[in-house]
Amino acid sequence: THASLLKDLREEVDEYIEAVRKNDSAHMAEEIGDILLHVMFSSQIAAKKKLFTIEQVIDGLIRKIKRRHPHVFGDAKVSSTRQIIANWNRIKQTEKRRKAGRGHGKK
Known about the structure:
By secondary structure, this protein is mainly alpha-helical. It is built from five helices and no strands.
């Protein structure tokens, strides 16, 4: 189940964080693969329950990236990384307020 996988997913994320902190790229690649396995496995569980598919996950991610990077996918102009991050955070907060107004859970 999704719930039964949480402990293992957390462990994989912790191992990835440790690899990053040690600047161990081979271990990072291995651990990010383990995280990807969890994403795929959880998506398969969800698909069997007709909750969502991996295609929906990927589509949602693509749409989110496009919304939050209007300087790449739209007409917004930025002059610094700081502006890009500020825009991302502003857009993210706007999205959260909209979801809260519709009664959806957090992302």
